Amino acid sequence: VPPILGTEGLGTWSWDPASGCLPGTLPRPSLRAEPGSVITLGRPGALWCQGTLEAQECRLYRERIPEPWDRQMPLEPRNKVKFSIPLMAEVYARRYRCVCLSAAGWSEPSDTLELGCQVRVTQGAYSKPSLSALPSPVVTSGGNVTLQCRSQLGFHRFILTEEGAPWAARTQSSEPRPSAQSQALFPVGPVTPSRRWAFQCYGSYRENPSVWSEPSDAGLVLLGLGLLLAEPSIWADPGPLVAVGSPVTLWCQGSLQAEVYHMYTESGRHPWETRPQQDSRHKASFSVIKSMSSHDTGQYCCVYWTSLGHSQPSDPLTLVVTGMFPAPSLSAQPSPVVASGENVSLSCGSDEAGTAHLLKEGGAGPLHSLEARYSHGAGLWQATFLLGPVDSTQRGIYRCYRGDTNKTRVWSLPSDPLQLEVSGEGPSPVSSVLMVSAGD
C-alpha cells in the first residue's frame, strides 16, 4: 500500500495517519517542471519525477488532495516518469510532490514544486514587475543583498524564482505603497562566486494566487566577487544630473594593475559594458549614453579585473535625467539675505505634485528631498526646507527640481538660481536643514 499525502493543515503536506502506512524510507525522487516552473496559459508542459533506477511506479500528488493526481510507469532508463500537461490552465497551477515505488518499498516524497500559470493579456492587466538589487547587483563574496520586486499594479504577493532551482520559488506578501504601487523585498545571501545567481520575479493577486504575471526583465544576475582588491572610483562627466537628450560619459578608475573594467547597472544585466584600461592613468571611459533618456537613469557601479582577480565594486553612481517637466520656482523667506546665526526657509513650488529636490551649486548631490504638499494659499504644490542657524558655509547658489513620485530619477528643468547671502561674522553655529512640507 503506498503512502498517501494527507490534508492536515492548510497549505502543508503530511502523511495520512488513517492509511496505516508509515512514510517511505527510500531516497526521495526529484521533481521538475518543463519548460519551467511557470508555464504560459494554453501552452503544453510536463512534470518529471526522477527516482532510483529500480523505480517501478511513480505517483504525483497535489497539495491538500490525498489521492494521487496521476500515476505512471517509468520510462527508459526506468528512473524517469513524465506527467504530461497537454495545455496549461489555471487548474494545473498548484503545488506538487511525487513518490516512487521499487521492490524495496516506497520512497520519501520529493521536495515541493510550485507550478505557476502565466497569463499574457493586453493592456497591461498582468504586466511584468521590475526586479532590482539593493544596494547593487555586485556583491562581495559572502555578502548579502536585498532583491526588490516592484510593480505599478497592486499585486498582493510576489514570487521570486532562481535560475536552475525552480523548486525553490519564494513568495512574499506585498508591502503597501502610495499610488497603488506594490513591492516585496527578498533577502538573498551569502552570495559566493562559485555559482551563478540569477533571478526573476512575478506578481499575483490574492483572488487568483496561482495565476502569475509575466516575468520581470531578463534574469537579474548577482555577481559574487572572490579575491577582493581596492575598490575603483566612478563618476559621470559632465555630472550625474543629465539634461534629456544630452550625452554623458561614465568613468571608472582603478589600480595600475587593472586590465579590464566592467560596468554594471542595478537591473543586473551581466555586464552592461566592458572596456580595457585605456592608458597609464589606470581608468576607462564608458561613453555609450549618447542621448540621455529616462531609460538610462538608475544606479551604476564598476569593477576591474587584474591577473590576481576581481576588485571590490565601486560606490554606486546614480544618474538622473532632467528637463522632463517644467521648472519649479524657488524662493527664500523672509529674504535671500540672512544674518549669520539666523534661520531661512527655501520654498520649492510647482503646479504639479511630486518630490522636491534641493541642490547647492558645487555640491555632490541633492541636499535634501521632500514630498510636496498642496498649499491652498499659494495655489501651488510646495516643499519647504528650513536652513539654520546659517553660517558662511551655506552662502551660495541654490536650485530645486521637481521629481516624479513614481520614477524617482526623472526630474524637471531646474528652477532659476537663488543666491543666498549670509551677512555678518562671528563663530560658526551648528547648522542644519529641517525639512518641512508646506500645505494648508
Automatic annotation (TrEMBL):
Cross-referenced Gene3D superfamilies: Immunoglobulins
Database matches in InterPro entries: Ig-like_dom (IPR007110), Ig-like_dom_sf (IPR036179), Ig-like_fold (IPR013783), Ig-like_Receptors_ImmuneReg (IPR050412), Ig_sub (IPR003599)
Ig-like domain segment(s): 232-302
Gene Ontology BP terms: cytokine-mediated signaling pathway; immune response-regulating signaling pathway
Cellular component per GO, a single term: plasma membrane
PROSITE patterns reported in the protein's UniProt record: IG_LIKE
Pfam families according to UniProt: Ig_2
Keywords: Disulfide bond, Immunoglobulin domain, Signal
Entry's Gene Ontology molecular function annotations: inhibitory MHC class I receptor activity
Name by which UniProt lists this protein: Ig-like domain-containing protein
Annotated source species: Oryctolagus cuniculus
